[in-house]
Amino acid sequence: MSAEKTRRNRHGSIAEETAAAHSHGYTKKLDASLKVGKPPITLTSFTDKEAILYSLPLQQEVGFAQFPGGSWLVSMTCPMPGITPEMIEWWFWWHCQDPLRYQIWFPGSHLYISYPSKDKRYFEQPAMPPFRPNTQRPVEKIGPVSAPLQIDFVTPESFGFSGTAMQKNHIPLIVCGHVSTFRGLVPHTEMAHIFRQTEDGLFLSSRFWLGGCLPSCLRSILRRRMTGSLARGMAEHCCIEYRNLTEILPEVYNRYRNR
Q1: Which residue segment(s) compose the domain that 77 sits in?
Q2: Which DSSP state fits 46?
């Protein structure tokens, strides 16, 4: 067996075992905690997102709720013991270089990933360069729906977070971006993964403002697809994928970061 096949098989087995362990248990646990109705979470607007950095209760919220205008807020958390900011930064540079790497993150739900030619130089360097804004094009299943997406990753500062607020609140890293369909033609969601430093690793607080940045001319049409079912599916997807990542990342990072 070739070295490449060995690598792929090994990564596949790690991910499949992890996904099997988590996908049933965490989805079952979410059944009781994610409800539509009285908002189980605080409806923090995208404009007020920096309040999340200052509030531990906000960082610990899990659920989804609808804004009066029809868009949705999804909140999810994940304890990540043994994970460092450097590992997360490396993962977001490394995994999109090969669809298999994206697939092992969440087998069966992460289907494919690519990046545009404008980012080829950034992703194809032999070692991870300093972060720069970049575009990734994942195809993933949210519930039963396969969604070809474009995510334009940006710095926290350009997204609207203050570097000072991050430092004050022990937030070493925020992975954030603008989510769209049709290769950037239809923006619809803002996404932020907020990593707080803990004694044993990181604590992740995720927010998705689903449908919050839809062009006004499309809101009435596309918000029919931005339903409570989709919001719940996004919460479950995020819950499972980051628990999977917590399991596989230390081994993958230690094995491949210098290759």
Answers
A1: 50-170+206-213+221-259
A2: S
